[in-house]
Amino acid sequence: VNIEQEKVWNFQDKTEESEASSPDLLWIAELFRLFAIIIEAALWLLPLVIIFYLYKYREYWINLVQGNGFQAKDKVLPDTLFGLDISQQSLPDDVPGQARKLWASGEYRSAVSLLYRGSLASIFRSYTFELPPGATEQDCLREVEQSSHLTLQNPDEASSQSVPPSLLIEHFRLLTDLWVELAYAHKLPNDDHFNTLCEQWSRVYSREGGN
After folding, report:
1. Most CB contacts within 10 A, which of 86, 87, 88, 150?
2. Looking at the whole model, is its pTM more than 0.70?
3. Which residues, other chains included, contact 200 with Cβ-Cβ below 8 Å and sequence gap of 6+?
4. Alpha helices, DSSP H only, in 57-82?
């Protein structure tokens, strides 16, 4: 019996063998490639974002570099709040006196609105604090109440302030409640309550830059 031995050479692509033995490596590589693209895009966008905010708040940085600080008075005091005009031109010289005339003529909403607008204008003009966009009357009240002390726009005026901040906060709270009840709940206050707020208004805001 003749026995013959044959040797057969089997050539196999090692790359195909490697890919076949580890198919999960492909999606991992794709994932890392995606992360690299995202990081690269972020690195390109970051300088643009920084430039945008530097330009948007350029007045703040200019004042800071010049040593003037942030001019909060110019930034915080708007022309309108909650749809109410609090510009200086819209307010009479004698706010409580004009409010009493409006009340006596039956224009109750206008009377209370005038007291409230005058208070807002005086507080925003005299003190430093900010409101978030879209703030409401209650947001404004909370901002005033949560301040342990109200910071004057001009610290040199501190010696002339005879009204304690606690009295201003209490009066502003009562006046805010009165305005909200009248404007939204259509609840009319009595004459005594309104007259009391008018009298207090003169005492509270006479030295706060009010009218």
Report:
1. 86
2. no
3. 171
4. 58-66, 72-76
